[in-house]
Specification:
The structure is a homohexamer.
Chain A: E1 20-34, E2 40-48, E3 51-57, H1 62-67, E4 72-83, E5 86-96, H2 101-107, H3 115-126, H4 132-143, H5 145-153, H6 167-182, H7 191-200, H8 217-223, H9 225-245, H10 253-263, H11 279-301, E6 315-319, E7 325-328
Parallel strand pairs in A: 3-5
Antiparallel strand pairs in A: 1-2, 1-4, 2-3, 4-5, 6-7
Helix pairs in contact in A: 3-6, 4-9, 6-7, 6-11, 7-10, 7-11, 9-10, 10-11
Chain lengths: 334, 334, 334, 334, 334, 334
């Protein structure tokens, strides 16, 4: 797909000033600017898994612009240029491209854990489901290879923002492990509903819709959201399970699972289409919140790699996802 | 379906003290009480389109109780009894029953307008759709006879609460007439999206789900809600339109319609799964709100029939749906 | 009023680098800066209907500064200068001035529609008022020529911010047309109150107060607001109508109209002095909101002229007036 | 005005079971009920300064009902009757009446302090105003005898609800004394604006409007409110002062005073038409809040006369005006 | 302590109409009423672990009244009386009393689990603390026998309201088990801080203060709250540990533990004195919330013993502690 | 402590471009940056009572960095350098230092009023306390010399932000004077509780904790807050008063004072650990709010010294502490 091979792929973090470069990159924030005399030009951010840099392409027709994805992937050739103490990429050639799964792993940050191993753990927890209809439903999902590929690949948070490939799988597995450990403390909760609900709660992030082949997934994410998406997907999978497996679901079972999915954000102002209104929905929502808040807090206060910009001070920046609080970083017992 | 014909059907409003009665009624708030010595008894409300009275059945097993619908319809025989200045119904026989459409019209309050005429007006506005895919989609919905029957029958608000048969149709028609009149003032709004969005926005209230035959519709309403239900229904109808009519929807068209449906309550705290985020979704949500608020305000301040309990005073009771305000009733120019 | 005629009036959009210019401009954000060695200088924005540029005047006494309006109009002479890739105006002479109506139309953006025609339509809708007291009251307002001139001239939103001359008239006319079209659907609303209420609801934006001749209108706008202003104006006009026309208003009529005016922003947190508490006040508030939200949404998502800075991306910037949402711009059926 | 003198006026607190009574009473919550066979009857509360009792009149035409005030005063004859352990008044004759000021003092609870003395203290604080325009404005208000009579009579809170005659004067005087004592601590506050602002802040509660002679004052209170009313009154009084006294107000002076009046409730959600936005407006609003909250807290926690219904327990009922808190009553140092 | 032994102690649930009874009871809502002729009488609720009934004592001086506890324990003799279909207790003799721990277990509902066993489990989890200063601090707490007795006895929620003896211990143990199970998933959390924080988070509910011997504990609970109480207690225990054990705490360690205690309610509006601002404080707050919400949801939707008053219907009453939601009760897979 | 005396101490406001400087400064916002090639450098702000400038130290090891206080005091030598139109300090030598009280007065802005005189006034108001236990408690506080020194020195608001030395004393004295003047208007308030409560309400800002010698005070301020700190301090002082003076506090007295302290911010969302729930706590909270809001409003609208950046315009910047309002600055009567 690359038009010319004369420039070699260089990682963003390896680029120096005034170098030729070429290869695939993720593109973000693509916008059309106009110079003072009215000529259009392209402004965007180009990234791979090692970093991100601003880019400009000075001659750019509107048609060319509209062929580019707003958030997606491109093949690019050009040259680096120092600008205001930073590097900037001056682009000569830019074209949309569809990365393979392997290319994706080069272009986007990814989990450091073994994806196959994590997936196997999820499957083995699903194996502990007891109710035959739930077992059949899980089987239908697991048999959907394309969906499971996306489940293994998807980030837990929005494509390309503070998230990484495999994040969805990693987050789902952590939640399943938590409930596996603590469900014995709550014998009145239905374990199958909790386990199935957690497996499904974020799956809407991966969905492909037949009637909307060319429509941007992330636009659909904004307009519909993965909660409603997940409920629609379950509607299809339940029908498919009934047809294919001859299973009859107990009355209310699919409704209660859909309810877990569309309510798991807890409060309408956090995106829940309904507030959680069964014991299992409340439990799923709380477990999800526990993991999310803890992971965010640890990422902010005790990051893997010390970030350059907040070495000093005992408090982090304000954390939007934690009611805008600053966190105290030191562990006094460490 | 009635076990014995020796008692004649009497309207609630015609009942006097110490009379035998029998016939079909709507039942609500069915609860099991216990007398001081621990015997279970049934407490409920029985109603028809003319009124509502409290009822008791003194001998009642739990099994019998669980066979009754929480909100639904029953055949009843018994006797009236004065109690604390009101009438109370003492029930001898009570059984679940499924009313026909004609029986329903006896049991529930209904619109005073001609349902066939209103439906014809809706159809004729749908006839003005321009885009072939929208025309095909409307055709699919209109061809679903069972759905259209429910659309003509359903109340606009919750079954049996301050609402009436045909209310959904009446409300939908009013909205379609409003936009038909004022859309010329906003030429940049896509008329097809607005008209189709309004036709579909409340249709989720009518849905029957194959995998949940015996599950209570109103329970599903609480747990899933008619917004998400309407989006799922459109998912099915779009697929059906593609298969049956060979139509290809423009990218994003179904997403944008689903967005109108799940966002039409305006704010998440009012039940929207997403806040309205297209010009058409905002417009639909505002028109719906305009009609709802105006109808509620007029019903409270200028009711058809003077209600006994607030003849006096210039202000109404507090209106929950209007931020708990009291409304000033007089029209000083009248 | 201009001290020297040697420089010709040039539109902002026509100015090139290092040119002499002179003429009348709107001034905004006038502030006094101080250079590092403490000398005061003037920083401000100068605009006409074609655009806006930053300006500086390097020698500036405090007295001269205090003679300038904070938001208003000035005669200016000076020279353009490129600065950080933009043009900047270096001012030699600056003086306050009072533009005529014709000059105003040069200095501020204005409606593209015919003001006389729009005003005639408003008058003809007022002609349909039925109650003699309302007819007399409308006559009193229409007879106030200075007020009607301001009504034809005023923008709908704050002077000089994302608004244009004639905007108030345009907005009022749209609302009157909407209610003219849809009031037949709500026969219990008093049409006279709705029409009169809409005619008056924003008129407070134009008011001149005898006891405060030299006081800045926009300061009064901040401290009192056009809602209370409109209620005070109606207090005067009602008294004048009684005196001049010998009209006696039905009890409560003026109160109910004042209530419509002071409540039309809907909620106290949006600026309503009282929440709307009559059916007509609720209706007026909802219609106003419908038009405002729709116009804002269309202006953001489907602007007249494609703006340079957001050609790309399917979503707009966050819209403060729409609960800070981003809007999806494409019309999938277009 | 009383049709028959054969029954003597008895105070509510003196009435025993099965006694004839007659005389003037305040009426509240007048509503029309219907008996089971559809006959209308009157339900209301009758009170004088000693207490309040429920009343019924069993034969009552709608015309008679509509002649009665919703909240106001009536002449009544009838008989007491025990009902559910309480007394109830069975009315034979009921007619609207207009009490004289002396009768009012019998019918409504009143301040225990000397009204003339309190008024004299207010006048003497107004005498300390320095600016000639403020002095002239105060003179205009004080010269309006009807207004000053109402100022001396009016309760601080809503007519007939937990408030008493003279309450407005008492509250205003307390505030003036507070600021007289503490203004020396804030020399940058303009004393005249604060004193004048406090004198005027609640005066809107007393206003009579020429164009609305027969319209209920309390309905206008609900629809317009005493904040906007007070600003309209100042509009008139300022014009009158200019005409009568030849005074010219400094630019902005009346606006700033009107701003104090319409903002003194502090936040829009507490009824302010604008949030207080000058130092004097903020100070007035805070002083008003300080006195209001303290008086409410003391009345709840340390009432003059121990109330029968909460002798026990260390905490009061929840106080709506104090964010629904319960107050701890004991003074541990007492 | 009982004045007369002629009446035998009967459980509330065993009492029938018109029986003599006598013995110790918990008293709540003690209030002084007045009969119509002004005589004071006592109204209160009397309860033991089997139930609760209303009680009256018709002759009651104010002095006697003030000797009774508002919420506490009394010895009572009297007679049962049917009233409005319920039993009521007519009291002859009532006196304050101080129950022993054994008597308490008769008077208040209690956990069904083994208190000694639960306490041993808490101790064994505390044994796993690693840091010597934390070990020493735990030792100081465990050595305080009076405190540990109260820890074993105290309910988790407010004395006598929907709570039971041993509830605090049961809740604390559940939380410690949860974190013991899932802390390995979050290796960056300091385990000692989490375990110690959870052990201490609700201990403030048990505190006795030397300077306030006779002051009601529950009044202090209302005015200070167990969060601040727990922080004060830790202040003392830390000082004691330093003195007694010669331990030096790492800088910030006690502060961070106090922070966990005063922030564990999550948001200020839920009673947190500071929002949780360390990873451990966030984690503790989330785990506490997870258990509290789950326990409340299960208690409401799947109670131990079917309650008489809501046998019917698929939804519970509104749950105040769950944002006032109604919960769906059925488990569709059961 | 200063390593070299060859550079003389210069005030920030006296520094010119390219000068050597040296001396003690307050340091704030110390952060570690990294240059493009990864070398760490120090970014911070240095200030004394005359102003503040940005500073950089280009070679900086992490160990050196971690020895510096985040907010505190340092000895610095270096050179000024113009940068983007401002001065910047290029640091050669930087070391932590502990300023004496006299040095502090050079480094931080300070009250202009006489600290000894203000303190004497506070003492003389405390002399008017009546209850012997309150007198003894005041004596204990006044006898704590280290605490009283801090009380005289501390700013009222956060160290180094828009606050000044002596500010706490100044604010406390103003409040005591206000209540001294207006308490006679509220005879049911317990004067001792109000006076003592105000004396103590902000004292927590000064506290030193024995178990946390080296722990940053401002970190503790963030995590615990001065409200809870003040309650803990009172816990200690009450115990000390009991021991040293043999005083027995009336039951509830210390609780009620602690309640005043932890509730004085009024609402939980403003930092109160409990909402004020006694008349005295409400009064203290309101008086504190009155002074705080008035002082903030006057400082914004009528500052001592005209600030360069807002000479123009009648409105201030938005004031975060006043619900983000802009204030109108002119006094129209001035």
């Amino acid at each position: 797909m690359s038009p010319a091979a004369k420039t070699t792929r260089r990682s963003i973090s390896d680029l120096g000033p005034s170098e030729r470069f070429g290869g695939s990159f993720a593109i973000a924030n693509a916008q059309m600017g106009r110079t003072r005399n009215g000529d259009p030009y392209l402004k965007c951010l180009l990234s791979d898994k090692t970093g991100r840099l601003p880019a400009r392409k000075w001659s750019m027709s509107e048609e060319m612009f509209h062929r580019l994805p707003t958030d997606g992937f491109v093949y690019v050739e050009g040259q680096t240029q120092p600008y205001q103490g930073e590097l900037q990429l001056i682009v000569d050639i830019i074209e949309p491209m569809e990365p393979s799964v392997d290319e994706l792993r080069e272009l986007l940050p990814a989990t450091e854990r073994d994806v196959d191993d994590m997936f196997a753990q999820v499957v083995s927890i699903l194996d502990t489901l007891k109710h035959p209809a739930m077992k059949a439903l899980a089987k239908t999902y697991l048999a959907d290879e394309m969906l499971m590929d996306q489940f293994r690949l998807a980030p837990a948070a929005k494509m390309m923002h503070h998230a990484y490939l495999g994040g969805l799988l990693e987050h789902t597995l952590t939640l399943l492990k938590i409930v596996d450990a603590i469900l014995p403390l709550y014998p009145k909760l239905n374990r199958d509903l909790v386990v199935m609900g957690l497996f499904l709660h974020d799956l809407g992030k991966t969905r492909e819709l037949v009637y909307d082949k060319t429509f941007s997934y992330s636009d659909r994410g904004e307009l519909i959201g993965h909660l409603v998406e997940g409920a629609i997907m379950l509607h299809d999978k339940a029908a498919q399970t009934m047809r294919a497996e001859g299973v009859r679901f107990p009355p209310g079972a699919i409704t209660v699972l859909q309810h877990i999915i569309i309510s798991h954000h807890g409060l309408p102002e956090y995106g829940a289409a309904k507030p959680p209104s069964t014991p299992e929905a409340i439990f799923v929502s709380q477990v999800d919140d526990l993991d999310a808040k803890t992971v965010i807090a640890l990422a902010a206060a005790r990051p893997e790699t010390e970030r350059a910009y907040d070495l000093g001070g005992n408090f982090t920046e304000r954390q939007w996802a934690l009611q805008n609080r600053k966190l105290y970083k030191p562990d006094p017992l460490a």
